[in-house]
Amino acid sequence: MKSILKGSRIAASVLAVAFGAAAVSSQAVSSTGVTDLSNVPQRIIVQYSDTQQRDWPAKAKAYGARGGVSLAHVRGMALRDRQVYRLNQRMPAAQLNKFMAALEADPNVVSVQEDALMQPQFVPNDTYYNVQWHYFEATGGINLEAAWDKQTGTGATVAVLDTGYVYHSDLDANMLPGYDFIDDTFVSNDGDGRDADASDPGDAVSFNECSFLSPARDSSWHGTHVAGTIAAVTDNNKGVSGVAFDAKVVPVRVLGKCGGYLSDIADGIVWASGGSVAGVPVNSNPAQVINMSLGGSGACDSTYQAAIDTAVANGATVVVSAGNSDADASGFRPASCNNVISVAATERFGARAYYSNYGSIVDVSAPGGDVQFDGTHGVASTLNDGTTSPGNEAYVYYQGTSMSAPHVSGAAALMYATDSGLTPAQVESVLKSTARPLPGACSGGCGAGIIDASAAIDAVGGGGTPTNQAPTAGFSFSASDLFVTFTDASSDSDGSIVSYDWDFGDGGSSSDQNPTYSYASAGTYSVTLTVTDDDGATDSDTQSVTVTDGSGGPTSDGFTETNLSFGRDEWQYFTIEVPAGANSLDVSTSGGSGNVELYVRFGAAPDSATYDCKDGGGGNNESCTISNPAAGTWHIGVEARKRGASGVQLDAYWSSN
Asked: Residues with catalytic annotation?
């Protein structure tokens, strides 16, 4: 995660007039390990094997005695098998990991994890910006003006899990009552714990306040900026427009000074969707869409996933930012969780923004801006000019995946306003199927493309001219020595395919539907078929093709990694390219000390719930064998358990006859 700068500030109806900047630290957070926010209370989440009520203060006292530390019970969670405890004095990371491992030895305990702090997802922003290109420009926008001719969001409700809401006259008419889920008074910065006041008092911090040498920063008013993108009042002769400007927003405050605790965020997710949280009044306006422009490093954990699954079961679509570390989003949460729409950021020219995370877990992209290119290339929305506490309302341009996610949440609200019976799975499917390819570059994977709000509304029955559905490219092949016969398997659901463009990976090409090609030498080649339909839409399919020269060719290949070391519950990821024709993929770990589990999955990074093969029988000697593996990229995940592991060897090899 990177730090952020607040961007260009403008007057109510003027372009970039004044500029203000304030750095905000976004500390990296491990998947279940320990943060370095030395001045913020340490807390842990203990998951029990049942939901039986116990004497929790006595439990805290007993747990504390084991680790030689004073421990206090904070509260239960909406996930009723989990309890939150606070350490009354900080432990070094190694000692805390040892303490949590000792608690896990209790037969009634399923897991123990740090109650980690999550952070807002936005990045450096230090130049001027123009107007809201991200709505209407053909290259970088989301086709919103055409959508507004059919739908404006009436009847839809979006929950924004963020820093809360500071009053703004260009947004207030669309705000509903919310809730403040921050129970720690240092983080909340409002003098009390949980209550029905979701207003944002400011999240400014002084030098050294969050952690050793952490920088000072002004208040971000991040939640108000996100909410404005979703539902700022529109057509009122002032300020900015919102994507779904007749929708309503429920502010759910989960982020404060130095970030927000995972346990608070999880409860906020459940409550926002209409679920029950002990001691908190039921949300009278359950959200159809939940926006989370926040996150931290580490693969999705069980607490996040359980809360998200609860929200989806309650009918809420969960939209999350992919993160701003220019890295594979599979290493960040909640972007790597299942049942979410993970959103990457694009800039004004339709390319992946330089800071945006990427990868196979990204579902779609949306404008996030890039003010480092030019001051007119950010995302404008509602804000406040107070540096610590609320001051005057303002309009400011930010950039980041925090800004891209609310574009998608707003589009989802327009879809729900069109058809309130949609399921979260249908919303995700339509947003992906109606997205358009990025007109600019995207290295690493940007999902289905940039969302098209108008096309999404049409697809769920919003009227207008039906949007052309892009074709689906596909092919099969058979190889005999250096000769390969390719068979087209493409389809087009609402028209016909009019052209075929084959790239055989060695400089050769063909426009035939079913070509036969002869390679000059043995090897593995990346073959791409691009098809175009009768309305000009395209799609591509790329596969690895291995040919031999008749003398046997390559029969085995792979890699060995030695002396791997892992922290407690740490994941490490690897990939191996398997060619067509391989009849076995063998992956194994061995040696060293500790305890690791091995996961193998085709096409995407595995996690503890999604894999093609898993071995975790204890110790470090684990193995997975895949017979007749599919050609392409296989992903390997190695997770250390309990106290970590060291000196581990990983072997991954494919073989063919």
From this structure: 162, 222, 402
